[in-house]
Amino acid sequence: MQERGELRKVQEGRRRVPTRMISVLLLGVLVVLSMTGWWLYFGIKKSIEHERGQNLRDFAVVAAGAFRNHDLSTLLPGNEQLYLSVWIRGVLASYSTQSGMRNAFIMDKTNHILADARKSVPVGTTCDILKIGEEELAGVWNGNAAFSAPYEDPSDGKRYTVAYAPVTNIEGVVVGILGVEGPLLRDVGAERQPALWVGALSLAAVVCLGFVLIRRA
Predict the structure, then answer these.
(1) Mapping DSSP to helix (H, G, I), strand (E, B) and coil, where does residue 207 land?
(2) In whole angstroms, what separates CA 77 from the centre of its chain?
(3) pLDDT in tens, 33-82
(4) Which fold has domain 67-189?
(5) CA distance 82 to 160
(6) CA torsion, ordered 177, 50, 97, 99, to nearest 10 deg
(7) Assign residue 160 a region: left if phi > 0, alpha if psi is -120 to 50, beta otherwise?
(8) Which of 34, 140, 142, 150 measures 20 to 30 Å from 64, CA to CA?
């Protein structure tokens, strides 16, 4: 009887070891799947944000062409009521409303506003939406459009980017920079769904596999 009792203990111990190993293995798989799901989500998000930035930059390049035949040197502090100033601000406002942008503006070499879609911003105000470095800004003045890295506005919790495009005169000389600020992801939940589905299905598969292995252990 004593030998049978010892044999039973040995057999139970052998059963416990595979079960513990399976539990550790499943836990590791769950961690890997969780990390993979988040990696997939952030990868998709980053790709969409970059594409949105490129689209915004291309839009800014096209939009800047609307001001090519106009003399921006007349946009001086106190001249907000001049026809050209009123017209440019109206065009910038239409960019903001019709294209889903939050703001659009034109600034000069000293980073002061020449025209802003927000009509309350007077000419000569220091630009408060300068989101690129000096090197990138110099590149825009040399004729190369650019867009900023994504940033979050604490006032609404949304992520934005700003695209900058050179504004040239008839001779092709850069006389200003057009900036357009737009949201990056309008519906983050839509971009998160693929990762959530992958995580949910993987979790279900792991649970089923674990149940089968434990039953056989």
Answers:
(1) helix
(2) 35
(3) 666 666 666 666 677 778 888 888 999 999 998 888 788 888 888 877 88
(4) Beta-Lactamase (3.30.450)
(5) 32
(6) 100
(7) beta
(8) 150
